[in-house]
Design brief:
Layout: E1 3-8, H1 18-28, E2 32-35, H2 44-54, E3 59-62, E4 65-66, H3 72-85, E5 90-91, E6 93-95, H4 99-104, H5 112-127, E7 132-135, E8 140-144, E9 157-159, H6 163-172, E10 175-178, H7 183-200, E11 218-226, H8 231-241, H9 249-252, E12 256-258, H10 261-272, E13 278-282, H11 290-301
Helix pairs in contact: 1-2, 1-11, 3-5, 5-6, 6-7, 10-11
InterPro entries: F420-G6PD/mer, Luciferase-like_dom, Luciferase-like_sf
GO molecular function: oxidoreductase activity, acting on paired donors, with incorporation or reduction of molecular oxygen
Pfam families: Bac_luciferase
C-alpha cells in the first residue's frame, strides 16, 4: 500500500510549531510526518524524538541527516535509540549533504560519495547488531558494536539525485528519498539508476523489492502540493525557486499537484504508478495553513489512494 505523508518545513515554521503539526497530522490519519535537517534550522534527531514522543501511531522520517556532520557510530546510536524506543515508527535517512553548507562548517570532504558509502555500510552493519572494524578514507571503527541494537531494525534510507549517488543508494541503502524537483521524468530515470545499483549488488530490481520481499527497497518521493484559489501561483513560485521552467499547467503537473482532494490524489497517483512507495507532500514555503493542509491530506486525499 502506498503511504501518504507531509513534510514539516522548517523554513517558515519554528520548533514550537512541530508538535502541534505532528499531532494534527496524526489525528487526520496521515501515515507519515517527515522532517528536514537543513542547515542551519532544526535538528533532525531532536525533532524526530519530539514528534515520536508526542504521538502514538504516525511514522516519522528524516529526509535527511547530512553524514559529514556526524560520526557513523553516533548516527547508529541515535537511530538505535529512537528505533528501540519507538519500534517500527522511525524512518531515518542520510545523505552527503549540500556541499556549500558543509563548507560553511568545515565539514566538506574531498569525496562525498566515498563518505556516503562508508557511512551507509557502517551504519547498516551496526544497526544489524554486527561488531564492526573498518579503516576507510573517512570512517574508521575499531571493534565497535552497539550495546542496544534495535530489535526492529529500521530501513536506512538515503537522499539521491545524481546518477552516481542513485546507483550507490540502490546498491547499499534500504530506500531512496527523492527531492521535490525530481518530477515524473526524474522518477522514471531514478528508478532505472537505482535498479542498476541493485543489480551490481546482486539484488532484485525495485519492482520485485516491495514491502514483504526478502530485501525490500522503499522509494520515497517528495512533491509539492497546494489547495485553494492561489494554489497554482504558489506552486509556480515554488518551481521558480527550484529553477524549473513550467510555462503551463501541464508542465507544472509534472512536479506538483493542486486543486480538490480528487485532483490532488490524481496528481499523487501518477507518482505511485511509477513505483513510489511513500508520497510525501512538500508544502509551499508560503503555505498559509500547515495544519489545515495536513488535515486535508489525511482526511480527504489519503483515503482516495488506499
Amino acid at each position: 500500500m502506498t503511504s501518504v505523508g507531509c513534510i514539516f518545513t522548517p523554513y517558515e515554521n519554528p520548533p514550537s510549531r512541530l508538535v502541534p503539526f505532528a499531532r494534527a497530522a496524526e489525528a487526520a490519519g496521515l501515515d507519515e510526518v517527515w522532517l528536514w535537517e537543513d542547515c542551519f534550522l532544526e535538528s533532525g534527531i531532536a525533532s524526530a524524538a519530539a514528534v515520536l514522543g508526542a504521538t502514538e501511531r504516525v511514522a516519522v522520517g528524516i529526509g535527511v541527516l547530512p553524514v559529514p556532520l556526524r560520526n557513523a557510530t553516533l548516527t547508529a546510536m541515535e537511530v538505535a535509540t529512537l528505533a528501540g524506543a519507538f519500534p517500527g515508527r522511525f524512518l531515518p535517512g542520510v545523505g552527503h549533504g549540500v556541499q556549500d553548507w558543509m563548507g560553511q562548517v568545515g565539514a566538506r570532504v574531498g569525496s562525498p560519495l566515498t563518505l556516503l558509502r562508508e557511512h551507509l555500510e557502517a551504519l547498516r552493519a551496526l544497526l544489524a547488531g554486527e561488531r564492526v572494524t573498518t579503516s576507510g578514507r573517512y570512517v574508521t571503527l575499531d571493534d565497535v558494536a552497539l550495546d542496544w541494537p534495535p530489535e526492529v531494525v529500521p530501513p536506512v534510507l538515503s537522499a539521491a539525485q545524481g546518477p552516481k549517488t542513485l546507483r550507490l543508494v540502490g546498491e547499499l541503502a534500504d530506500g531512496a528519498v527523492l527531492v521535490a524537483d525530481t518530477g515524473l521524468a526524474g522518477v522514471r530515470r531514478a528508478v532505472g539508476l537505482l535498479d542498476e545499483g541493485r543489480a551490481a549488488a546482486g539484488l532484485p530490481p525495485l519492482a520485485e523489492s516491495r514491502p514483504g520481499s526478502e530485501r525490500p527497497f522503499r522509494l520515497v518521493a517528495n512533491l509539492a502540493a497546494a489547495t485553494g484559489p492561489d494554489a497554482v501561483e504558489r506552486l509556480r513560485r515554488e518551481c521558480r525557486g527550484w529553477n524549473l521552467d513550467v510555462p503551463d499547467d501541464a508542465a507544472l503537473a509534472e512536479y506538483c499537484s493542486w486543486g480538490s482532494a480528487e485532483q490532488v490524489a490524481d496528481g499523487l497517483r501518477r507518482f505511485a504508478d511509477l513505483g513510489v512507495d511513500a508520497l510525501v507532500v512538500q508544502p509551499t514555503l508560503d503555505e498559509p495553513d500547515l495544519d489545515g493542509l495536513a488535515a486535508f491530506l489525511g482526511e480527504e486525499v489519503a483515503p482516495l489512494l488506499r
